Amino acid sequence: MHRRTSSIPSDVAIIGAGPAGLACAIASIRRGLQVDVIDAMRPPIDKACGEGLMPDSLQALATVGLDLEKELSRFETHPLHGIRFLDETSTAQAAFPANPGRGIRRTILHQVLLDRANSLGVRFHWENSVQDISQPSIAKQSEATLIHTNRQTLRARYVVGADGPGSRVAKWAGLTREVIHSRRIGLRQHYNIAPWTSYVEVYWGPEGQAYVTPISSTQVCVAFIANQKIPTPDHALAHLPALRQRLATAKLRDHARGSITLGRTLHRVATTNIALIGDASGSVDAVTGEGLALAFRQASALASAIHGDNLAAYQHAHRRIQRLPTLMSKALLLMDRHPNFRNKTISLFERHPSLFRHLLEIHIGDSPIRRRTPHLQPNYTT
Asked: What is the pTM (predicted TM-score) of this model?
């Protein structure tokens, strides 16, 4: 099959058009860089997730260059005002300290990011499956990297792998050395029911958790997470009687969608001219609710590093960005693995709500601990 080859290299080619890739494209083109995005699929692109953006996610999106509240005026979403933990005997909750989060369908989030990227002039190559990349030799680092797809060959100074946890870009770049902290199975289901709260509710049970996120005035998203495969939402609800009662009159809106959630740290996320972002660069367990926030922070840092021709700076920034969420993920997973510890912890939060609130502030970056953590700051030219 004949593949046409681009004559002029772009500044950055991003492989993967999920939220991480799109955020990186927006941040990069706002730096004055020429950006190509390549994806084997065609929109709309969906993925199983909890569909809740906490306040720090919205703040990170604003840093990338997207005012989500403004962009969402044509869609129905739902404000999120805090987090509530529920187990067999206790209930603890904490409100977000300042601005609310947002419950939003994954497909709506993707469309908003895509529209913004298109409006800025990002070039998209849909239904292009990347087959291989050819990197320049050490002696010719100034030359472009070739990205070979099933349809064409593109040229770029930098390549970004935003292609998920099984990243082929990571394999081609030799960036696969990793430590896996956790591996769990997820199942997402949408229910037609008016939300009974504006909090994200986390139901803790003997076989895992369920995260309930209101995403419109008539719909909630429930993400079930467990160490073993979850056959059906009804099977999961059998172990969560309080939630089962809440959803007793709800109608299923669609088919359940499964996924794997990993706690994973990579030894390196960048070479001289290739970098990884989002789940391709490591991840934290879904229990944190921080997956998208991490990707958006990484997008700002990576665009800054590419603009400065210094991917080593991104390597350092990525490590800082990932550090606290990884620690939080490990701590929360202790509650999953040790029921007695979980019961005592939620009971403690119930008796001392200020403690839960303080930990939530740390988690979402609204405390001195997170605010003192340095990041690459954006300095946009457009």
From this structure: 0.91
Q: What is the pLDDT of residues 72-121, one digit of tens each?
A: 888 999 999 999 999 999 999 999 998 999 999 999 999 999 999 999 99
Q: How far is CA 55 from CA 61, 86, 162, 363, in A?
A: 10, 21, 23, 11
Closest C-alpha among 252, 238, 296 to residue 27: 296
Domain boundaries, the chain: 7-77+102-180+263-336
How far is the C-alpha of 53 from the C-alpha of 68, rounded, in Å? 10
Where do we find the tokens 């700002």? 300
Residue 3 one-letter amino acid: R
Distance in angstroms (rounded) separating the CA atoms of residues 95 and 103:
15
For residue 352, the one-letter residue type is: H
Reported as a single tens digit per residue, the pLDDT across 163-185 is 999 999 999 999 999 999 999 99
CB contact at 8 A, 281 and 208? no
What phi and psi values does residue 91 have, to the nearest 5 degrees? Answer: -135, 130
CB-based contacts of 97, cutoff 8 Å, min separation 6? 357, 360, 361, 366
End-to-end CA distance of the chain: 40
The residue ranges of DSSP E strands in the chain, in sequence order, are 4-5, 10-15, 35-39, 52-53, 78-80, 82-86, 91-95, 101-103, 123-126, 130-134, 145-149, 152-161, 178-192, 199-205, 208-216, 219-226, 251-252, 257-266, 274-276, 282-283
Tokens of 147: 């990205």
Whether pLDDT at 374 is above 90: no
What is the overall mean pLDDT for the chain?
91
Maximal C-alpha separation, the chain: 68
Fold of 7-77+102-180+263-336: FAD/NAD(P)-binding domain (3.50.50)
CA atoms of 290 and 328, how far apart (whole Å): 10
Reading the block at residue 109, the tokens are 């989030």
- pLDDT above 80: residue 224: yes
